[in-house]
Amino acid sequence: MKMNRDMNNDINNDINNDTFGLYLHIPFCQGKCRYCDFYSVNFEREIVEEYIHFLKEELRIYSSLLNNEKKGKPVMQTVYFGGGTPGLLTARQVAGILELLSRDFTLSPSAEISLEVNPSSLTEDKIRDYRRIGINRLSIGVQSFNDRELSFLGRRHDSREALEKIELASQYFDNYSIDLIYAIPGQTLAEWEKTLKQAVQLSPYHISLYSLQIEKGTPLAAALAAGEFKKTDDALDADMYLLARQVLTANGYEHYEISNFARKGYQSRHNRIYWEFTPYLGVGAGAHSFIAPERFWNHADLFLYMEKLKAGKLPVEERIESSKEEMMAEMVFMGLRLLEGVSLTEFYDLFNVKLNEYYAREIEKLKLQGLISVGDERIRLTEKGLLLGNLVFMEFLP
Ligand code: SF4
After folding, report:
1. Which of the listed residues 85, 121, 139, 156 should we mutate to test ligand 1's pocket, taking the one with most ligand atoms within 8 A of CB?
2. What pTM was estimated for this model as a whole?
3. Cis peptide before 279, with omega less than 30 degrees from 0?
4. Is residue 89, in this structure, part of any structural domain at all?
5. 357: CB partners within 8 A, 6+ apart
6. What does the pLDDT look like over 34-55, one tens digit per residue?
């Protein structure tokens, strides 16, 4: 995939293939969760309408920039409405965006079209209408089935509401995912196991797990500094991760990425785009894009974002052109997130470089530490490496 700009690079053209994923950032929430450091603002109906108007404007600009005179437009394989809380949009607003995508882009008929929702703002009418207008995958921000933990996190739903909304989603959607958070201060291994078993009983198609990070500037960081709670220690965090791996794989989930589990055939196609080094376009305030060799991102300020578009400009804050060495490293450490690992052949086809020779020293060191394994065709993380992924990824940084 190439834009109509001069983006010369010395890697093989395979990276500029003809498919891509689209991410749309919807930065509105009903209120701020105590742990959240994503860019989002409080939901206000008029601002949302105005924002969607400019989001469509941005899409129209890219629709002409991505048009290749000879090959036409690249095919959009996945669409992901992320946030924020995209589930605060009405079905009419989402349908308006999808109509624009069908008209001004080439949207694959089999595209995975996901939308993030939260239990507290989800109704049966919304679920039914989202399905009717073409959303075919919901990602539900459940986080926990324990009311104390949900309240600690500052979520706006309780476990009863989470169960009710998952049940409703399962009536209309044949593909949905739930997010769960572990290593919540005060959470015991037994409580985490109870949440996992509850999840397994509901049998969602996909489960994403996140270890709670206390990010600077959040209310949780202030509460931690005030001594209101203690952080979960690393050993318990690791035990919780391994327990999740054990419970979920024993119940038919494939552990396919460090933090993601899926029933057969239900891996997140959109997220695989990030891990597989495939191009993606991000639109909306703060959204990131990757069209090799460039990474670029938009202003993470709603009003600045809209102002730029009002002036007929793209709302891009910064562009970085990666060197070949940087792209090689990115392909390795993003690919290692997948349990299947990185294909030596694909790496060679893309860069004309043998991965195991170029990174021979790093690979030897990580093998000795028991963090990666190297086969004839792929390198991948070991179980120990899954726990210490960041250490492994750092080795490949140029
Ligand atoms: S709903 Fe999601 S994006 Fe919004 S504040 Fe909570 S964690 Fe952040």
Report:
1. 85
2. 0.94
3. no
4. yes
5. none
6. 999 988 899 999 999 999 999 9
